[in-house]
Design a protein that fits this description.
2 domains, two-stranded antiparallel sheet
Length: 380
Amino acid sequence: MLPEFYQTCFQRQLTATQFITLKLLILLLQFQKQVRIERLAALWPEPILFESRRRRLQRFLVLPIVNIKNLWFPLVKHLIKLNFGKNGQLLITIDRTQWRETNLFVASLIWEQRAIPLYWLILPKRGCSNLNEQKQLLRPVFRLLKDYQIVVLGDREFGSVGLAQWLNLKHVGFCLRLKQGRYIQTEQEQYKRLDSLGLLPGMSCYLQNVKVTKQAGFGQFDIACKWQGKCRQKVTKEPWYILTNLGSLSTAIRAYEKRSGIEAMFKDCKTGGYNLEGSHASDNRLISLVLIIAIAYTCAIIQGRKIKSQGVQQYVCRLKETHRQYRRHSTFWVGLYGELWLGIFLLCTKDVCELMRLKPNKSLNFYRGLKAASLMQPCF
């Protein structure tokens, strides 16, 4: 189930007991898509009392070794080396997701039209992050990816000239969306609001060396402006105004368009997938639960890519529908469904064999399905 390089990394860091515990947690998470400790304890296969199982999981999640830098960063380095090359450009998007009193702040790498979490914090408050918290989130990521070209993407919460200046000093590219009410000043002109530029759907422009605030002391940056034209019979409500140092309209827009991958990741980790918001764990345990989700999430993506490369994804999900323009299932869901299908198939082998015996007219279809299952099995 865990890729070989995951297992090698974990065995170096963990004791045998800790390694087996982590493997079982990932297995339960993939099958149950649920991170509530009560639910995981109810399904935990160790023959001990329920309360003992629950306490065992709670103790595991607060072990000093179970942290991002020890267990996650080595995997991230390996994944990036395999999939992006030594000199590849990495798009890092930052965003928050909030439920009840929990405010999770995440920096993620765009990959496979999704994002994979790189580093995360629990903010001790509700609402937006400030510049110090943004720096706290990004510094470990920059140290981890110091050998790569990085572009940071952020929505309107992060459209801060202060953040842009700091990223510029770090020699990091950025595309940070500005609110349309922000004031700008071009050469020999008075300050004016971005929404007074007169953009209409389908229009775009690139403003160079613009002052982006009336506040004194800030430098000049470029702004990429674009109002998306009609798409699927709909027109977007407002244009994008993107603070950037990438040098051109097309480069900035292409980069920022990929920011939505983090929204898809949040959906996969919350109600649409692992039900993270159902957890009532303390902050320390929640940080570890997000780590477990990150491991399981990337495992599913890796498995989905292998299933697709073998051309057997039609055995785990519908490839397309006539009324849908885009694919129904992402690489993540192909991998997750593939693991579930193969797991149930292996669990019910005796009954499946009996069903096949009772339907001899379907023997050719069964043969093809068994061949597909045999191709998928090494993925896990």
